[in-house]
Amino acid sequence: MKVQLGGGVRDMRTVVGWLEKGVARVIIGTSALKDPDFVREASRLFPGRIAVGIDARDGRVAVEGWSRQSEVSALDLGRIFEDSGVAAIIYTDIARDGVMQGLNIAQTVALAEALTIPVIASGGLASIEDVRRLLEPDCAKLAGAISGRALYDGRLDPCEALALIRGAESADA
Questions:
Q1: Rg of the chain over CA atoms, in angstroms?
Q2: pLDDT tens digits for 112-149?
Q3: What are the φ and ψ backbone dihedral angles of 80, each rounded to 5 degrees?
Q4: Pick the residue with more confidence: 2 or 130?
Q5: What CA–CA distance (Å, rounded) separates 147 from 18?
Q6: What is the 3-state secondary structure (H, E, C) of 51-113?
Q7: Which pTM was predicted?
Q8: How much of the chain, in percent, has pLDDT values that exceed 90?
Q9: How many other β-carbons are positioned within 10 Å of the β-carbon of residue 96?
Q10: pLDDT at residue 95 above 90?
Q11: Which pLDDT value is given to residue 98?
Q12: Mean pLDDT over the full length of the chain
């Protein structure tokens, strides 16, 4: 199973340590805003294995476990990493994360359309209906989605979700 990991990744030693332990992809969040050169260097050294986590509230990047709000927009931060080798942007609308209200499709798709870096939706995926929504044509630009709480509390059956996704892939083939 491929695992990606984020949280507290603020230096190259931490990146190397996790990758050596078998983590497939390391997600860099706070340091993406504070030290973009670190992200560029990690992406250069470990192609395809570095993602940027952009957590935003009202379109503005929040850092340090969402305790600090910046004035930088999610789009502006994403643009900093165009052509840097970053494998993906994981976009979380933190107003929706864990509250079971669904993803912020409009903002996530807009970010994906504005960037060449693949964008993964996060924050609010709450049900099989959200999975169906992600399979609609306007979401085709998204590279994937992350679910957390809905899996933990049983609102989203992973087997049902995967069957729905496989069915959609078969229909497209």
A1: 16
A2: 999 999 999 988 888 999 999 999 999 999 999 988 88
A3: -60, -30
A4: 130
A5: 22
A6: EEEEEEECCEEEECCCCEEEEEEHHHHHHHCCCCCCCEEEEEECCCCCCCCCCCHHHHHHHHH
A7: 0.90
A8: 68
A9: 19
A10: no
A11: 47
A12: 90
What the block records as the tokens of 26 is: 């390391």
HSE (side-chain half, CA atoms, 13 Å) at 65: 1
Q: Among 96, 104, 137, which Cα is nearest to 121's?
A: 104
- The one-letter code for the residue type at 27 is I
Q: Which pair of tokens denotes residue 76? A: 């502006």
Distance, CA of 125 to CA of 146 (rounded, Å): 7
Q: Residue 94 has what pLDDT?
A: 83
Query: Angle 36-45/12-20 helices, nearest 10 degrees?
Result: 30
DSSP class of residue 156?
Answer: S
Please tell me the distance from the alpha carbon of residue 21 to that of residue 106, in angstroms, as a whole number.
36
